[in-house]
Amino acid sequence: MMEMCEYAVSNAEGFAEQLSRELQVLDGANIQSIMASEKQVNILMQLLDEALGEVDTIEGKLSSYEEMLQSVKEQMDQISQSNRHIQISNSNNVKLLDEIQFLVNYMDLSKGHVRALQEGDLTSPKGIEACINASEALSQCMNVALRPGHEKLMAVTQQQLLFAELRDTFARRLTNHLNNVFVHQGHDQSSTLSQHTAELSLPKHSPLHRDLLRYSKLMEWLKNTHREKYEGLSRTYVDYMSRLYEREIKDFFEVAKIKMAGTAKEAKGKFATLPRKESALKQETESLHGSSGKLTGSTSSLNKLTVQGSNSRRSQSSSLLDMGNMSASDLDVADRTKFDKIFEQVLSELEPLCLAEQDFISKFFKLQQHPAVLPPLAQVSLAPSLPRSLAPSKDVVRLMMNKIFQSIETELNSLIALGDKVDSFNSLYMLVKMSHHVWTAENVDPASYLSTTLGNVLVTVKRNFDKCISAQIRQMEEVKISKKSKVGILLFVTGFEEFAELAETIFRNAERRGDLDKAYVKLIRAVFVNVEKVANESQKTPRDVVMMENFHHIFSTLSRLKISCLDAERREAKHKYTDHLQSYVINSLGQPLEKLNHFFEGVEARVAQGVREEEVSYQLAFNKQELRKVIKEYPGKEVKKGLDNLYKKVDKHLCEEESLLQVVWHSMQDEFIRQYKHFEDLIGRCYPGSGITMEFTIQDMLEYFSSIAQSH
């Protein structure tokens, strides 16, 4: 259209008029078309009227239907409400049934369980099993968690009363039965005590423990349901078993003491009649190594401190009884072996007894777990602030064991005191054995009764060991020497040797080696001090001889035994022995050539004062004539005679046991040769060209020494 009216932009008015004309043409055409379709319009109107009539008909039917539906709705509402009430009723019935089933299932005890609780057999295995099952069922019934409102039900209340009555009845029956068992056990064992104690063995309680452990579940039930009766049973058990164990242990230790006392009497009888055999130590050492690991043997006691002559020392040993001590050296091998076996047997019997009883108490009274119920006997021993129900089980077990075995520690200390009285050196053996048993017990359970008790006894043994060492030292300090006989090897020196030999055997691989090392140091220092003290007080034997012989013996002992903690003392003993050997040799050799010694001492004094060596011969007192005069007084025959007298004197000074005579004689020979060469050197320097020589040669002198040694 725009293309046909390209002039519209330039002639808008003309374009508008054209459009108006065309619109009028179209309106006229529309009116003519409408007038031509009036017939169809009339038909349409007629159809509409008919449709309205049909609508009215349908509306009438719908109204009737609505009236009908309204009646049905009311009926359905009534039915719905009725159904809702039915559902609520059904739900309540279900819940009620559930509650009834709950109460029946959890609060109903079978007739068999009731019968077992009221009259079940507590002696037969089947009866005990039935009682265990019934008690567990009763506990479940009594411990059921009731729902809110259950406690208001009369049936529930009646059941609870029935359960409480059954609980009390069964608890009373169980308590009475176990009380009777405990009482019977406490009296029944007495008849077997004599048989066991005669063999130095304790009766075994494993059959009783085995029988009682069948009731352990019932004891656990009693512990959880009736604590007063549980505590009463624990008190009864401890009371009766403590009496039983006290009798058994007392009889057991009495037999052990009788056996020890018998050993002591045998040894005491030997003291007054038999001297100490020189071969005893060798036999004892062999026994120590050949007795299947048992620590046996004997030793000389350091109590023997009286210094006597070497020939009479052993025969006079019986006089030591006046000191009031039973010397270990007077116990033979059989006596010591017997004591060792007795002490080991005592510990070996006590250890399994205590362990078995502690294990039984833990299992029977259910004390392996926390929290534990504290028996009445233990309440007074724990801190008031600690609740009974929270008392540690181990503490409860230990306190019960302390009550049951209250006599063990006392009896052990008494036995140890007797052993120490029989022989103070028994403390060495007891220290080692007790330490080993304590170490073993601590490895099993450091807090056990056995570990604690043996630890306490070990303190006593260690104290006795320290007293033994102190007593030896004290008696060394109180030593008195004989003025009529030579000293020789002091008894406390040989005593230390034998003590060390025994101790090294006993303490081999022992846990308490440190205690022995400390004792060694104390003893050896006391030996050193008192050897020197005796040497200073000796009148019959020269001081150097006493020091030389005894320190040589000490050095030999320490070298042989190789005691590492005494290495310094071993070197010191060697040094003292060497020094006093040299001192004795020098002092003794001044006597055979006494005038010659004095002459040359004067010559050396003049030289020391500034006189020239070649001018000494011009001194009036030291001229050649005086020298020849002195030399002529010592011809070979006189020298040999003087050496022979010297040998006899040395032989009188030295003791036979140490065998140092040849050592000293050889040292004197060396020293004599040294002096001879020294005299010749002085003659050559102070009297040159004089041609003066000794009346004997070195070869002569060697022959003198050799022939004298061979002749004796």
UniProtKB/TrEMBL annotation:
<dbReference type="GO" id="GO:0005886">
    <property type="term" value="C:plasma membrane"/>
</dbReference>
<feature type="compositionally biased region" description="Low complexity">
    <location>
        <begin position="288"/>
        <end position="302"/>
    </location>
</feature>
<keyword id="KW-0175">Coiled coil</keyword>
<dbReference type="Pfam" id="PF20654">
    <property type="entry name" value="Sec3_C-term"/>
</dbReference>
<dbReference type="InterPro" id="IPR048628">
    <property type="entry name" value="Sec3_C"/>
</dbReference>
<keyword id="KW-0813">Transport</keyword>
<feature type="coiled-coil region">
    <location>
        <begin position="48"/>
        <end position="82"/>
    </location>
</feature>
<feature type="region of interest" description="Disordered">
    <location>
        <begin position="280"/>
        <end position="322"/>
    </location>
</feature>
<feature type="compositionally biased region" description="Low complexity">
    <location>
        <begin position="310"/>
        <end position="319"/>
    </location>
</feature>
<feature type="domain" description="Exocyst complex component Sec3 coiled-coil">
    <location>
        <begin position="13"/>
        <end position="143"/>
    </location>
</feature>
<dbReference type="GO" id="GO:0000145">
    <property type="term" value="C:exocyst"/>
</dbReference>
<dbReference type="GO" id="GO:0005546">
    <property type="term" value="F:phosphatidylinositol-4,5-bisphosphate binding"/>
</dbReference>
<protein>
    <submittedName>
        <fullName>Exocyst complex component 1</fullName>
    </submittedName>
</protein>
<keyword id="KW-0268">Exocytosis</keyword>
<dbReference type="Pfam" id="PF09763">
    <property type="entry name" value="Sec3_CC"/>
</dbReference>
<dbReference type="InterPro" id="IPR019160">
    <property type="entry name" value="Sec3_CC"/>
</dbReference>
<feature type="domain" description="Exocyst complex component Sec3 C-terminal">
    <location>
        <begin position="397"/>
        <end position="689"/>
    </location>
</feature>
<dbReference type="GO" id="GO:0006893">
    <property type="term" value="P:Golgi to plasma membrane transport"/>
</dbReference>
<comment type="similarity">
    <text>Belongs to the SEC3 family.</text>
</comment>
<dbReference type="GO" id="GO:0006887">
    <property type="term" value="P:exocytosis"/>
</dbReference>
